[in-house]
Fold these 2 entries.
Entry 1:
Amino acid sequence: MTKTKLFLILPLIGLLSCGKAKNEDKGTEDKAAAISVTIKGSDTVLPLAQKEAEEMMKTNSDVSVTIVGGGTGVGITALLDGTTDIAMASRDLKTEEKLKFSEAKKDIETVTIAFDALAVIVNPANKVGQLTREQLEKIYTGQIKNWKEVGGEDAKIVAYSRESSSGTYEFFKEEVLDKKNYAADILSMPATGAIVQAVSQTKGAIGYVGLAYETKEVKKLSVSYDQGKTFVAPSVASAKDKTYPISRPLFYIFDKVNAAKVKAVVDFALSPEGQKIVSEVGYVPL
């Protein structure tokens, strides 16, 4: 039996790279041969993919999985280039991306593996506990620059965002900023974990992260999408019953040519055991 290996590469800071799956050219017809699957993309999906891969390989010892973060856009580009088998994504494909896959004659399948509540976080020392969508829009487009403008102390707002290759960046822009551009002075971070760390260490900071990244070192804000009439805190329960407004699906995307190769990984993600892990990690099962 081939020894199972799991390579987990956390994309905090630095250059990331990922090669093609090792056994790609050996064929998958030989059942004794190991299947090497590469997964790349969304930092939001990353902790879920890692945990599911660990558990799956306990009973699928012929499968070797390499997981790399870096953002949804990075994963989709890698899928287009043929340097990953599965792209992790926290948004759907853009029109231009669909066109590129079509031009490359790649037939792509998108599978929803979980749902996420996008949490807005601040430093625990911040007295502000809730914001409206409109206030968040004004903070991230540069119209509101001081916490006193939203009921807080007289202190400069330090806003953190993911970089533009991130699906979370795109989703926040679409759903929270009403498609408006981020302000030029917003601080872009290379990974979700880096946002959590920065907010935990900066009193005037604000950021947004997938629910599974929320820790005791930061404070989640309640958010209103009805001009301040109702504020709802992000949680698995509020995302599941759809009362929390900033929720979204999470995806695995792959080329149908590789459907047999990635079947074990995708099937496990959709299985009762895989969906149980979704809840354990902090996301919302299907």
Entry 2:
Amino acid sequence: MQEPDSFDLEEAGSQTGTEAEPEATRRAAGITESSRANRGWWDRNADEYQVEHGTFLGDDRFVWGPEGLDEVEAELLGPPEDLKGKDVLEIGAGAAQCSRWLAAQGARPVALDLSHRQLQHALRIGGSFPLVCADAGALPFADASFDLACSAYGALPFVADPRLVLREVRRVLRPGGRFVFSVTHPIRWAFPDEPGPEGLSVSASYFDRTPYVEQDEGGHAVYVEHHRTLGDRVRDIVAADLRLVDLVEPEWPAWNTAEWGGWSPLRGGLVPGTAIFVCERT
């Protein structure tokens, strides 16, 4: 699961203590720039990410988002007993925690990530399944290679054209195959990315699709995240010739007292933080 960055430009700007710190802005960012920036960002920040969030994610859990919704309970890919023998592609795998859980159910996962450093953490933890470093917009697999595909906060928030990814996923899925992906709930783009009360007041237009960009002194992007409204996501899925089966908005559970960036019990009890799209190839 990837960690979305802050959308609160005022706060991000106030944290710029040295010239080396990136500048947070909203501007256009295309496919190539987004891919290059995010590959570099995750390679640089993978170590810190795994230290900070590794305990919550576990080594072999399948968690859909900061709320802690677990696939063992959600069964969005299907009952665990039905996963045995299935070929499953995990996109934006990070340290491949989800793939490790899938392998434990008897599935045959392949863990794909844009970041080489994230996959090195997957190697460190271990597992007998393949690790593939590649862009989700150009999957290096033959048509109809997988029964299932999944992505927990991986790839989709970080690509300039999500339809490229969705079409690629459809291409590599077998007929009847399911693709389930989670992203930051689109409504969160209207609020500051703060876990406390300051994160409960609308500060931006929900309809502003201008990407969030962190850039260096030369104006080169070092991190990019793209906003799609809920309707955009649905239209993207339909345009990729996938069928939307369900849209899950996990509620914040009482047991989860942790904060993760802008996710917190306070905000989670009032505003959805994650959207999970369950799709099938017809």
